[in-house]
Amino acid sequence: MNQGQQKRLTELVSQPVEWQCKLSRYTSFAIGGPAEAVVQVDLFRELQPLLGFLAGEKIPWRIIGRGTNLLVPDEGFPGVILRLGGEFAAISEKEDDNDSVIVRVGGGGSFAGLSRRCSESGLTGLEFACGIPGTVGGAVIMNAGAWGSDIASVLRGVTLVTAEKEINLSSEQLDFTYRCWPGFAAYQGRAVVAAVDLVLHRGDPAAILAQCKSLLERRKATQAREHANAGSFFKNPPDDSAGRLIEASGLKGLRVGGAMVSEQHGNFLVNTGGATAADVLRLMKIVQDKVKSDCGVCLEPEVHFL
Asked: Looking at the domain that runs over 3-84, which CATH code has it been given?
């Protein structure tokens, strides 16, 4: 960006712009080179003019949420990285028919935090999300889920913001598959998930909280926590587990540079310290090739690549 573009960018948002910011600071993998600028958007009224400016100036941009399911290249990103905060983390409730409650939450809100708040309020339907990191917007784009449930099962609608307008999509207009919203490809690089509407139901707060506690304990007991990571790296194949297949191929503990297949859970590639994105990608390829050779299954990454 030239000086004029930089000046205009700072005028469009209320938060200070971070220039030449290492994205390793903003990813749970602790990996990634610099972005030209990192911008936090706190106000709804800031988002559309900002997207309009970036589109008009042909400045590349991406939104990264909390960077929990993301691998950033070592060379970084030649453009603007957006993060949502402030008003984009707000939560509201509205009673609906048939003992249901419509919960509206901003796309920048914490998915795990939303699950916790709803559970404490006696709302059932999001117990599966307890402990799942990342933002609500990211959860929709990747159809985040666990324990046999996903966000698509409770989704009523999504509000997108582009440079030109606000788009409201109902659940009937959305197409979800396992860990993916394929239809978002049409909006990639043009739209931001600004808000989400979920349909939940009243339940017994004690029972809901007990279920959340049980799921959190199971998560803590099985998932890698000893090193920085991006969560489950591969999607589970139909009727099987990526972690089981990786362990069966004898790959737990395998290292490439600073990247390692977790010794605790085979489906976690971890940063043992100083890992590069190139290390992770080389390790990913080795794992995919070995599992394909051993059992004929092609493991597909669940982690997104910037």
From this structure: 3.30.43.10
pTM given for the model: 0.90
Domain boundaries of the chain, sorted by first residue: 3-84, 89-222, 228-305
Residues assigned a catalytic role: 179, 232, 302
CA-nearest of 87, 43, 85 to 63 is 85
Encode the chain (306 residues) as per-residue pLDDT tens digits. 999 999 999 999 999 999 999 999 999 999 999 999 999 999 999 999 999 999 999 999 999 989 999 999 999 999 999 999 999 999 999 988 778 999 999 999 999 999 999 999 999 999 999 988 889 999 999 999 988 899 999 999 999 999 999 999 999 999 999 889 999 999 988 999 999 999 999 999 999 999 999 998 888 877 767 799 998 999 999 989 999 999 999 999 999 999 999 998 999 999 999 999 999 999 999 999 999 999 999 999 999 999
Burial 86-108 (b: 16+ CB within 10 A, else e): bbbbebebeeeeeebbebbbbbb
Report the CATH fold assignment for 228-305.
3.90.78
What class does CATH assign to 89-222?
A: alpha beta
